[in-house]
Structure formats: C-alpha cells, structure tokens
Amino acid sequence: MFTPIKNLKHLGSNQFLLIAGPCAIEGESMAMKIAEYLVAVSEKYQIPFVFKGSFKKANRSRIDSFTGIGDEKALSILKKVGDTFEIPTITDIHESKEAAIAASYVDVLQIPAFLVRQTDLLVAAAQTKKVINLKKGQFMSPESMQFAAQKLVDSGNSNFLLTDRGTQFGYTDLIVDFRGVSTLQKIGPTILDITHSLQQPNHSSGVTGGRPEKIETLARAAIAVGADGLFIETHPNPKEAKSDGANMLSLDKVEPLLQRLVAIRNTINSF
Description:
Helices cover 35% and strands 18% of the residues. By secondary structure, it is α/β, with parallel strands linked by helices. The chain has one domain (30-269): Aldolase class I (TIM Barrel). Helix 3 (96-103) links the parallel strand 3 (89-92) and strand 4. It starts with 16 loop residues before the first strand and ends with a helix.
C-alpha cells in the first residue's frame, strides 16, 4: 500500500502509517530533535514513519503571522532530516512552481486542504512522480475527493494518499465524520489528520484555536474504524510553537499515545 514511499520502514508490521512532525520548520536543531525522538519511538513500536514539516506557511490568518525561516533553508533542513535518519519526509506546496523545487528535497508532496481543487497545482505535483498526499478540503465530501485523485491519475501519477482533516461545522469548529474513512478508502489509502481536525478556526483574534485534549479520543477512533494511518503534529513546547501551537501534541506525550494506539491496532488485526 505504501511501498512507493522511499525509505519507509516496517511495512510488514501491519501497523498504521504515522506522518508526524512539527507544523513548520522553525530551525535545524528543533527539527532534528523532534525527528530523532520520533524515529526512536517508531522503531520501538515498528511503525512506518514519515517526518513532516512545512517549509512555508502560506495560508495565514494575518499578515504578521509566522510564514517560515526561508524556503531553501527549511527545505534543506528537511533533506538533512531525511538523509541523517534515512526516513521519508513530506512537506506541503502551495503554488505550481513549488512542486519541482520541493520534490528535489523531500519524498512526498502534500496538497493543502484549501488547495485540493486547484488543477494546475495537482498536475504540477503529479508530474514530479513523487507520492502525493491529498488533504480533503474542509468544505468537501469524502466522495468528491475521487475527482482530485483522478487529476493525479490523468496526469500520470497513481501514487497518492488521502487525508481527512475534518469538516467545517459552523464558523469556528470542525467535526470528523468517521463514515468518510471507508468512503475515502475506496479511492486510496486513507489517513486521518488528528491535530488539524481539532482546530477551531476563524477566531476574532485572528489566531486559530484548538482542542488538543481530544487528540487521543480521535486517534483511538481512527484506529478502531480502520484508518490506514494517522497525521499528528507535535512540538517540544506547543505553547511556544510559531504555528498551530493550539492544536499540537506535546512531544513527550507521543510515545504513551502510540503505545496505546498500537495495542488497539493489534486487537483490531486479531479479528
């Protein structure tokens, strides 16, 4: 299922795929510290692991919001993480011109939820021949994601993942419809983005809120319904994170969570 992803380990463990890392690349030491911890934990529990980090945060509420440390610098850090730990890396792109550039540094390209209907962007991503992670738009039904996926296939690339990151519920909340997991799986391997599904957007302050105390609740449910993988953003100190700190999981809570999720997955696999 995930074999096209370069350097992905533990494919025979029958565990869920884990896409995890900081929301944004804030610096080299921070990225390496997080990667080292996540590699050790994923090795311990035999979890296929992809390190994630945005090289650029283009979709911000305010013009003074953090957008990055510089594109080339952040991409180089992602490449160093991948080379050092021999693991696959993923980053999101926002414009067609970024596809080929980012593809020379990382193994998987991610299409943000707000941009998943942008045909030119999807075609450019597909043409890199990298594995593509399509985030389901908060405004889209699971069924409608077949058309985004078909754009990749029609552009010569059938190696893709689908990630549900919640559906807009009113102006300031998101919900997860777990019926959508099996619907998306008819299209391709399906990941549930736990932390972004717990965002609370559109606050009057211009800063997105979140409910990180519900991370384990959503993660347990995702494993129970058979999701192929989880997407979790994490940081050593979420309160000091420069982006999405309100919904990230503290790094020291990752291992206890994964230990419990692996146990649930093993139980599911025994049926």
